[in-house]
Amino acid sequence: MSLPDNSEKKPVTPSEKQTATADDQNASVCERKKALVTFKTGNSALDSTINTVNKTARNPIVAHLLRTIERFNDRMGNQFGAAITYFSFLSLIPMLMVSFAAGGYILAEHPTLLEDIFAKILSNVSDPTLAATLQNTINIAIQQRTTVGLVGLLIALYSGINWMGNLREAVRAQTRKTWERTEQDKEKIWTKYLRDFVYLTGMLIAIILTLIITSISGSAQSLIISFLHLESIEWLRPTWHLVGLAISILANYLLFFWIFWRLPYQHPPKKALIRGTLIAAIGFEIIKMIMTYSLPKLVSSPSGAAFGSVLGLMAFFYFFARLTLLCAAWIGTAEYPEDKKSPGENTTQ
Q1: Which residues, in sequence order, are bridge partners of residue 208?
Q2: In this predicted structure, what is the pLDDT of residue 17?
């Protein structure tokens, strides 16, 4: 006589599901709060130092920073940053072609300006052969301005779309829950290029808006100071500098907010997005200050006169890429219970 099979799984009640979920959350919390250094040396001074390190690592701010660095390194943040830097610098070539074409149209419409340029070349270049070469180059640029402009626009569009695609994939790698791409992340090639074109257009609009805000605010600030005759008040100068700095950070904030809100597959939690964007905006302003003060010194040397501008641009692009990806990792590793959403909510696609 066979016994009844009691191995069938019983249905799980809602209370049991909640208990299992709570156990999983407690396990994850314990995992996060585990000691950074687990071994003991037997020496009281060293053990006390290890306990201090572990206590510091359990601090929420320090723990978040450690998670950010770990994710940035594990998900190839340095390699993505180098790739973004490379494509950023490569995109300058077609932009220069378009600039030369625009200059050719301007010179073609203003012959007197062209004659002034030729006169300055003859007066400043002592070598007749070099002066003739420069004049011939300018003439060719003017004659072929349409071809150079169209080719430059096409190459700039292609390189810009690929640059945006690399930036988008890099930001998504840092912000999504798992390192591996899921089925949701896969898309057809024509959809990818069309989406990257839309994102590139949106980012250009965001950059233009930030430049407009910065320029208008600077001009308005100067007009207000002149209108109120406040130039002679010395103690107000630091205040005006702080106001200009705040406006510049606000412009940076709008740019990075668009990047971190639009490029990830899912919109990040609000608190993490706001704080991470603020960190990126302040960091980007610090990078601009450092580059503003360091570039003139770099160009002043003989070797810097030849390569200083190129090195400065590469450094600027690289710091921008690293800052963007570090802040994306910071947003992706933020843990705020009140901002948690279900996996399918609030997607950007």
Answers
A1: none
A2: 47
pLDDT for position 324: 94
> Is residue 38 in a domain?
no
pLDDT of residue 42: 64
Give me the pLDDT at residue 37, please. Answer: 63
Residues of the chain falling short of pLDDT 50: 1-3, 6-10, 12, 17-32, 342-345
Amino acid at 327: C
Asked if the structure places residue 276 within a domain, the reply is: yes
CA angle, 69 then 34 then 334, to 5°? 40
Name the amino acid, one letter, at 5. Answer: D
Place of tokens 């606000």: 250
Within 10 angstroms of residue 185's Cβ, the number of other Cβ atoms is: 14
Which residues span the domain enclosing 292?
71-176+190-338
* Residue 218, both tokens: 């600077």
Q: Is the pTM here over 0.70, yes or no? A: yes
What is the per-residue pLDDT for 327?
A: 95
Give the Cα separation of 290 and 279 in Å (integer). 17
Q: In 3D, which of 316, 324, 321 has the Cα closest to residue 277?
A: 324
Distance of alpha carbon 104 from alpha carbon 209, whole angstroms: 28
262, part of any domain: yes
Q: What is the pLDDT of residue 57?
A: 75
Number of domains forming the structure of the chain: 1
Compute the distance between CA of residue 167 and CA of residue 86 in angstroms, rounded to an integer: 12
**257 within domain boundaries:** yes
Q: For position 9, what pLDDT does the model report? A: 46
Rounded to whole angstroms, the Cα distance separating 270 from 340 reads: 10
